[in-house]
């Protein structure tokens, strides 16, 4: 219930203006966001690398409203991949296609993605395509599918909660893509998505087995112990070594688990968001853990 309200609040522009401008939200933002600048994000990447953790940098921003904004975001992403290749080797970038203009002009968005993929391939950086709300989910997958033969190293996120996911996976007949399996962070109608947490977890476990059997270099984006332990067992049963797949977690979430997995010899990648457009991202993080809401409300009212 509270989670649903927070996910709706994530789309509310008035609330965004109110919360984003409030100096007292800084503490909470700081927990989940690496900083506002690329330099700060690279600094975090380098610190994590020194602990044996890889990163994926996410330039915050989504649902741009015109093509100029989508071009500017693409340019910033290209600047980011170039900085990564010089200063944080091994890092990837994660991008939302709504930020590259999917909701404004899907063809222009595909061109922006192509420009980013070409620039990234030129410097050996991998791009990961985030999966957003179902309103842009299908075009995101189709745009990814078109780019895949030219850039097979690209990874796409898929959401266990979405009812169409097994069918989507089966539809990749020629090339099986590199995937990041996540539970799904958006407010979706029951007709399109599972809503019950137990059902979503069960589907996550089922898809884990499918992915280790069919897809190269899988990534499991989760902080859930049940999902983590299942992925370890499924990978081992499929004959994969500890370095043949990776766990991905969010910056600021379950740091103890991230370090523990590294000590056990697993690959870990942390998703590191940076930039000024943190509001919808932060709301989704709070929806995942409503206990954060109290802390957040206290910070907004300053008590
Ligand atoms: C690397 C990465 C990339 C992602 N990319 C996408 C994407 O492209 N599209 C998409 O829809 N979703 C994405 N997500 C979000 C994902 O869908 C889930 O909403 C999120 O990971 C919470 O699910 P969980 O598997 O961690 O399990 P949960 O059962 O939600 O959490 C397990 C435990 O982790 C901890 N935890 C989880 N979330 C938080 C939090 N926000 N704050 C504090 N503690 C927390 C708690 O201890 C909780 O008990 C991504 C997640 C990760 C880790």
Automatic annotation (TrEMBL):
<dbReference type="InterPro" id="IPR029041">
    <property type="entry name" value="FAD-linked_oxidoreductase-like"/>
</dbReference>
<feature type="binding site">
    <location>
        <position position="96"/>
    </location>
    <ligand>
        <name>substrate</name>
    </ligand>
</feature>
<feature type="binding site">
    <location>
        <begin position="222"/>
        <end position="223"/>
    </location>
    <ligand>
        <name>FAD</name>
    </ligand>
</feature>
<feature type="domain" description="Proline dehydrogenase">
    <location>
        <begin position="45"/>
        <end position="293"/>
    </location>
</feature>
<feature type="binding site">
    <location>
        <begin position="183"/>
        <end position="185"/>
    </location>
    <ligand>
        <name>FAD</name>
    </ligand>
</feature>
<dbReference type="Pfam" id="PF01619">
    <property type="entry name" value="Pro_dh"/>
</dbReference>
<feature type="binding site">
    <location>
        <position position="285"/>
    </location>
    <ligand>
        <name>substrate</name>
    </ligand>
</feature>
<keyword id="KW-0547">Nucleotide-binding</keyword>
<keyword id="KW-0560">Oxidoreductase</keyword>
<dbReference type="InterPro" id="IPR015659">
    <property type="entry name" value="Proline_oxidase"/>
</dbReference>
<dbReference type="GO" id="GO:0004657">
    <property type="term" value="F:proline dehydrogenase activity"/>
</dbReference>
<dbReference type="InterPro" id="IPR008219">
    <property type="entry name" value="PRODH_bac_arc"/>
</dbReference>
<comment type="pathway">
    <text>Amino-acid degradation; L-proline degradation into L-glutamate; L-glutamate from L-proline: step 1/2.</text>
</comment>
<dbReference type="InterPro" id="IPR002872">
    <property type="entry name" value="Proline_DH_dom"/>
</dbReference>
<dbReference type="GO" id="GO:0000166">
    <property type="term" value="F:nucleotide binding"/>
</dbReference>
<keyword id="KW-0274">FAD</keyword>
<protein>
    <recommendedName>
        <fullName>proline dehydrogenase</fullName>
        <ecNumber>1.5.5.2</ecNumber>
    </recommendedName>
</protein>
<keyword id="KW-0285">Flavoprotein</keyword>
<dbReference type="GO" id="GO:0010133">
    <property type="term" value="P:L-proline catabolic process to L-glutamate"/>
</dbReference>
<keyword id="KW-0642">Proline metabolism</keyword>
<feature type="binding site">
    <location>
        <position position="284"/>
    </location>
    <ligand>
        <name>substrate</name>
    </ligand>
</feature>
<feature type="binding site">
    <location>
        <position position="159"/>
    </location>
    <ligand>
        <name>FAD</name>
    </ligand>
</feature>
<feature type="binding site">
    <location>
        <position position="131"/>
    </location>
    <ligand>
        <name>FAD</name>
    </ligand>
</feature>
């Amino acid at each position: 219930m509270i989670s649903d309200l927070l996910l709706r609040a994530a789309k509310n522009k008035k609330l965004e203006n109110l919360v984003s401008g409030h100096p007292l939200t800084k503490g909470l933002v700081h927990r989940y966001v690496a900083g506002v600048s690329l330099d700060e994000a690279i600094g975090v990447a380098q610190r994590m690398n020194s602990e044996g953790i890889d990163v994926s940098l996410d330039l915050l921003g989504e649902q741009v409203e015109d093509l100029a904004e989508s071009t500017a975001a693409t340019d910033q992403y290209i600047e980011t991949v170039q900085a990564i290749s010089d200063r944080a080797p091994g890092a990837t970038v994660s991008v939302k296609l709504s930020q590259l203009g999917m909701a404004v002009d899907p063809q222009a968005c595909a061109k922006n993605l192509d420009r980013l993929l070409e620039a990234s391939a030129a410097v050996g950086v991998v791009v990961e395509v985030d999966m957003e709300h179902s309103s842009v989910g299908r075009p995101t997958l189709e745009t990814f599918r078109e780019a895949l033969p030219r850039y097979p190293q690209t990874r796409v996120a898929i959401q266990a909660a979405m009812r169409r996911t097994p069918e989507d996976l089966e539809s990749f007949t020629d090339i099986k893509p590199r995937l990041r399996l996540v539970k799904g962070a958006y407010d979706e109608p029951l007709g399109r998505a599972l809503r019950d947490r137990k059902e979503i977890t069960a589907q996550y476990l089922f898809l884990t087995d499918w992915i280790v059997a069919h897809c190269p270099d899988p990534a499991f984006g989760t902080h859930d112990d049940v999902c983590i332990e299942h992925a370890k067992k499924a990978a081992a049963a499929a004959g994969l070594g500890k370095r043949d797949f990776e766990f991905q977690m969010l910056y600021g979430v379950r740091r103890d688990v991230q370090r523990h997995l590294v000590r056990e010899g697993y690959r870990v990648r942390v998703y590191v968001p940076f930039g000024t457009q943190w509001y919808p991202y932060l709301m989704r993080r709070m929806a995942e853990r409503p206990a954060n809401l109290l802390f957040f409300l206290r910070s907004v009212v300053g008590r």
